[in-house]
C-alpha cells in the first residue's frame, strides 16, 4: 500500500506506522506520534521495536537513480504528509480523501487471525497485522430477517452455524459439475461455545438428514421481506439455496431440529478450502492406505501427507475413499481435516510467520460470508479474542446421532436417533463440556457405588413407596407441578408433593436422601433419568414417613426429559488435538 498518497498528518493510515530504518534494514513501528514531518536530513536512528514484525519490504515508486531500487527513507522519521504533485501531474483521488471518523483513526494495526474456521476455532491467534479498512471491505455479509446487529453476549454461551456450500462459484470450480446450482447446505456444523470459553462442541449435521424446514423470511436486495413456505420430510441440505432460502432459513431449521438457538452464521464455498490451506502452507492429514479416487481426483500415499489447494478440496469432498463411502463417513474425514487445520493454525510455524498470517487473514476475509450481526472486522476480532484460550484438546468434533430412515426400503437418508440425539442436544443446551465426560463418568461411578452399597441394606422400593418433596429452582414457571403430574400420572409416584419455589435458583438438579432412603432414591433416579452425580446422600436416617428432597435445577428441561446424557460421551466424538488416520 503506497503511503505517499495518504492525506494530512492527522489522517494517519495504519500503513504509515511502518517506516524503514536504514541502519537495520527492517521496517519498524513508529510509536512517537508527536514527531514532526520528515526532512531530507536523516535523524539519528532508533532501535527496532521489540516483538514487532516488519511488513514486506516495499520497492521505490516514482523516479529514482536506479529502477527497482529499494526505497530510501530517513531512520524512524515523523509521520509523512501528503506527497506534493509533480509538475504537470493531476491530483489523484487520494488528494481529496475525506476525513476519517475519530473511531477509525484510532485503529492503527489490528491483531488478527484468519481461516475459514480460524475466527471460530482458533480465534485470537496473535502476531498477525492487518489493515482495518482493507480487511473490513473484504467481508461479505447477508442480513438475516429478524436478526440482530448486536454481536454476541460475552457473558453467555453461544452457537454459530458453520456452513460449507457446494455452490460452484470461483475460479476453476465450474468443472465440478452442477455449476449453475444456487448451492446447498453441503457441510454444516453447529459450533457451541461454552459460557466460560474453556471448551467448544462442533456437531456435524448430515446433509441427507430427513427433517422439516420451517417457514422462513428472507431479506431481498431491495429491502423487502419474502416469505419462503415450509417443507416437511425433506433433506436438510435444501434448507439453503433452494427455493430462494438464505442462511437464515438454515439457522431456523437447526433451531427447530435441536432446540438450540443459533446466534450467527459463517458460510464459505469451495475456494475457502483451497485458499485457507494454501495460506497456512498446507494441512497435515493421514490415511491408512493409499488413495486414488477418480471422482474427486484425490491421490495420496499411505501415511501422513501435507495437502493444500485443489488437493485439500478433493480430500474434504471425497466419498469414495473411506469407510462405507457414505456422507456420514465423509463428515468424519472433514472433522479430522478441520482438527488438523486448527493444530496448524495454532502451531509456531504459522504464528511466527508474518506472511502466512497476512495471507490467512486476506484469504479468510475474502472467503467468508457472515450475518450482519458479526459482519465487521471489529466484531469478528472481538469474537476471536473471546476464544483465544480454548485449547484444541477441549474442542470436540462429533456427528449428530442418527439412524437409517425407517421409511425407506433401502435407506439412503437418515433421521435423528430418537434416544441419543435428544441427549446430545440436552447436553449442549446445559453447556456441558464433552471433554469433562471422563471426570463425570468417574464421579458417576463413585456415586453409583455409594448408592448400591446403601441398597444392600434394604429392598428396592416400588414407585408407590417413593416419598419426595419437589422444589423448583430451575427458573421455569410451573416446573415442579409438571414434574409432580408426570410422576403421579405416568409412574404412580403418588406420595410426591409440590413445595413450590426453592429458596434460591440452582444450576444442577439434586436429590437429597437419607441412608435408609437409598432404595427410594435409586428408583426415582431411574424414573427421571437423573445422573448418579445428582444424588446427595445424607448421614442421618430419616423417619418412616419423611420425604426425600428433589430440587429442580437449570439443567432441568422438562418432566420426563432425562438428564443422564452428559454422563456418557457420544460415540465417535474426537478432540481437535489428536491426529487420526482416515480409514
Short description:
The protein is an alpha/beta fold and 583 residues long.
Which helices and strands, and how do they pair?
Elements: E1 18-21, E2 26-29, H1 102-106, E3 110-112, H2 118-122, E4 128-130, H3 132-138, E5 140-142, E6 158-165, E7 185-193, E8 200-205, E9 210-213, E10 216-219, E11 225-228, E12 231-235, H4 247-258, E13 264-268, H5 270-279, E14 283-287, E15 291-293, E16 298-300, E17 303-307, H6 309-317, H7 327-346, H8 348-351, H9 354-367, E18 369-371, H10 377-386, E19 395-399, E20 402-404, E21 414-416, H11 420-429, H12 437-455, E22 468-472, H13 479-491, E23 496-501, E24 510-513, H14 518-528, E25 535-537, E26 548-552, E27 574-575
Parallel strand pairs: 5-18, 6-13, 8-19, 22-23, 22-26, 24-25
Antiparallel strand pairs: 1-2, 3-4, 6-7, 7-8, 9-12, 10-11, 13-18, 14-17, 15-16, 19-27, 20-21, 24-26
Helix pairs in contact: 3-9, 5-6, 5-9, 12-14
Amino acid at each position: 500500500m503506497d503511503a505517499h498518497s495518504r492525506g494530512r498528518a492527522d489522517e494517519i493510515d495504519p500503513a504509515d506506522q511502518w517506516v524503514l530504518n536504514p541502519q537495520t534494514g527492517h521496517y519498524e513501528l513508529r510509536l512517537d506520534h508527536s514527531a514532526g514531518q520528515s526532512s531530507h536530513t536523516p535523524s539519528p536512528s532508533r532501535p527496532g521495536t521489540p516483538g514487532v514484525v516488519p511488513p514486506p519490504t516495499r520497492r521505490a515508486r516514482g523516479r529514482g537513480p536506479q529502477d527497482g531500487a529499494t526505497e530510501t527513507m530517513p531512520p524512524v522519521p515523523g509521520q509523512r504528509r501528503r506527497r506534493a504533485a509533480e509538475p504537470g501531474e493531476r491530483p489523484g483521488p487520494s488528494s481529496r480523501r475525506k476525513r476519517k471518523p475519530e473511531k477509525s483513526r484510532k485503529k492503527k494495526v489490528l491483531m488478527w487471525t484468519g481461516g475459514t474456521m480460524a475466527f471460530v476455532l482458533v480465534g485470537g491467534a496473535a502476531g498477525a497485522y492487518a489493515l482495518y479498512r482493507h480487511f473490513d471491505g473484504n467481508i461479505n455479509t447477508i442480513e438475516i430477517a429478524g436478526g440482530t446487529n448486536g454481536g454476541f453476549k460475552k457473558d453467555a454461551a453461544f452457537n454459530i452455524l458453520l456452513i460449507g456450500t457446494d455452490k460452484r462459484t470461483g475460479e476453476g470450480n465450474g468443472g465440478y459439475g452442477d455449476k449453475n446450482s444456487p448451492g446447498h447446505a453441503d457441510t454444516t456444523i453447529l459450533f457451541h461455545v461454552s459460557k466460560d470459553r474453556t471448551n467448544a462442541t462442533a456437531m456435524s449435521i448430515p446433509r441427507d438428514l430427513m427433517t422439516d424446514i420451517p417457514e422462513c423470511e428472507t431479506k431481498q436486495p431491495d429491502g423487502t421481506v419474502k416469505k419462503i413456505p415450509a417443507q416437511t420430510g425433506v433433506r436438510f441440505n435444501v434448507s439453503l439455496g433452494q427455493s430462494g432460502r438464505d442462511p437464515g432459513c438454515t439457522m431456523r431449521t437447526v433451531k427447530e431440529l435441536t432446540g438450540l438457538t443459533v446466534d450467527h452464521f459463517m458460510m464459505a464455498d469451495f475456494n475457502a478450502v483451497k485458499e485457507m490451506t494454501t495460506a497456512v502452507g498446507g494441512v497435515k492429514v493421514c490415511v491408512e492406505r493409499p488413495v486414488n479416487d477418480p471422482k474427486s481426483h484425490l491421490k495420496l500415499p499411505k501415511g501422513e501427507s501435507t495437502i493444500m489447494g485443489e488437493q485439500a478440496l478433493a480430500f474434504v469432498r471425497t466419498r469414495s475413499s473411506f469407510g462405507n463411502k457414505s456422507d456420514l463417513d465423509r463428515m468424519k474425514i472433514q472433522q479430522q481435516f478441520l482438527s488438523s487445520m486448527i493444530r496448524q493454525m495454532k502451531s509456531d510455524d504459522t504464528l511466527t510467520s508474518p506472511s502466512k498470517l497476512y495471507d490467512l487473514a486476506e484469504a479468510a476475509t475474502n472467503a467468508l460470508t457472515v450475518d450482519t450481526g458479526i459482519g465487521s472486522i471489529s466484531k469478528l476480532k472481538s469474537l476471536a479474542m473471546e476464544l483465544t484460550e480454548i485449547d484444541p484438546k477441549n474442542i470436540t468434533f462429533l456427528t449428530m446421532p442418527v439412524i437409517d430412515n425407517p421409511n425407506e426400503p433401502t435407506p439412503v437418508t437418515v433421521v435423528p436417533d430418537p434416544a441419543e440425539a435428544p441427549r446430545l442436544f440436552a447436553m449442549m443446551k446445559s453447556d456441558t463440556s464433552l471433554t469433562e465426560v471422563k471426570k463425570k463418568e468417574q464421579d458417576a461411578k463413585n456415586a453409583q457405588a455409594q448408592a448400591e452399597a446403601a441398597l444392600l441394606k434394604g429392598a428396592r422400593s416400588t414407585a408407590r413407596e417413593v416419598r419426595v418433596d419437589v422444589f423448583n429452582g430451575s427458573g421455569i414457571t410451573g416446573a415442579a407441578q409438571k414434574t409432580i403430574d408426570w410422576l403421579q400420572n405416568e409412574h404412580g409416584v403418588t406420595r410426591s408433593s409440590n413445595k413450590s419455589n426453592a429458596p434460591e435458583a440452582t444450576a444442577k438438579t439434586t436429590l437429597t436422601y437419607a441412608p435408609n432412603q437409598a432404595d427410594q432414591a435409586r428408583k426415582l433416579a431411574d424414573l427421571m433419568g437423573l445422573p448418579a452425580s445428582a444424588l446427595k446422600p445424607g448421614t442421618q436416617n430419616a423417619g418412616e414417613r419423611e420425604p426425600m428432597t428433589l430440587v429442580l435445577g437449570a439443567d432441568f428441561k422438562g418432566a420426563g426429559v432425562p438428564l443422564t446424557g452428559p454422563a456418557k460421551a457420544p460415540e465417535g466424538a474426537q478432540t481437535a488435538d489428536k491426529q487420526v488416520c482416515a480409514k
